Amino acid sequence: MITNLKAWGLSKGAIEILSGEPEIVEYLATQRYLAPFPSDYQPIIWEIRFDDLTYYYQNRGEMPYIRPSLPDYQPLFSQYLIDEKLLVFKVRDELIIERSSNLCKDNFGWVYDY
Question: Which residue, 17, 28, 71, 87, is most buried by CB atoms nearer than 10 A?
Answer without folding.
Answer: 87
